[in-house]
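Morning!

This is the sequence you dropped in the shared folder:
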Amino acid sequence: MLGTNRKLIELEKQGKSIRVGLVGAGQMGRGMIAQIEKMKGMKVVITADIAVENVVKAYENAGIKKADLVVTDNKSKAAEAVRSGFVVATADASLVSGLADVDVVVDATGVPNVGAEIAWKSITNKKHIVMLNVEADITVGPILKQMADAAGVVYTGSAGDEPGAIMELFDFSEALGFETVALGKGKNNPLNVEANPDTAAQEAAEKKSSPKMLASFQDGTKTMVEMNAVANATGFLPDKPGMHGLKGEVKDLPAFFETKENGGKVSKEKVVEYINGIAPGVFAIIRSEQEEVNAELTYLKMGDGPNYVLYRPYHLTSLETPLSIAKAYLDHVPTIAPYKGRIAETATVAKKDLAEGDYLDSIGGFTVYGTILTAEDSDAMEALPIGLVDRHIKMRKAVKKGEIIRMSDIIHERDTTIWKLRELQNTFGTVSAEDSGIIKEAPVV
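The structure's back. Tokens below.
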């Protein structure tokens, strides 16, 4: 079987290419456009962003001439431009999934509701969808995957994002017949659940990043969300609410994931975890019952046994997304998807004392952060999923700092796509690939 690179070269030799539609021309989107511009057999033919000048700049930075770029919100003009070999910049995200000449859609917005809507519209328009929006995935990914299966398209997370990189290690381990004991990632800053855009502002300016985005990493929400996606894909669960947040080096990992009764740090196997001190890497802890295999793993310095570590020291975020695009289009296979359904949840926690009548803001904001629980524990307390948080949520009653916000604590004043899909997911539960009727029964959003 040809490798992805050779498949793309062959596609280009045939005068064809994978036509990519992108929503979001921020840091991730800009990098992806530039990367794809140097690849064979793939082209970002249309990109949408609410600030269309960001799209124009992204294309120009990738080396595309202004003469080859059409700026329009008109569907007919956009379609004609793509068919004529131009690339399109638009402020209308619906054009991306609505054009016939788009094969794969990528969501790089980072906004849960927007991502849910993009995925929904892509699937109903029979487009493969690649999500660089893990917050949307952990909230409504199970129902979106089932809809995509029913529609005959691929719903997938992205290579290069930490969940995708972890999944590649997991698939490698499982394919070789190892027992996978734990899966995880490094955290590259100390956990500070009080982090907000103001406290993150100086560092964000130095890194030329969004203060809100940086705060979502510092307060742990992004880590919880990422490991939630891994849990839903693999069936592995946090050892405790919020995980342990252990500190150590790669060489320490095999011993960490022995159970406590055997001198380790965890109470059970098949867990997701984050480690302070190994960022930006990801890891899988593996084990074998075969004496010869263990001898070779020890010789190869993967650990001293019985646990061994597979460690990848990098992940290239959106620069690797083209690999997921190609895998979806060429092989019809996801990089990572919620194969196990919703088995974990990232619950919403008050970042400060919240009074009756207060409104929540958003992930990485001033009011809330997320912590991972098992879905069973989350359901028992009726916790508000972090992916549903938006500015239209009003506190029905006061909640103290550090307490989990429950559904009964809030009033949601406006229905959004992600809320409707979540209700659909709660109503239908598991849907077989054959039951395509669910798509017709779902609400128009």
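Headline: The chain has a mean pLDDT of 95.

More detail when I'm at my desk.
O.
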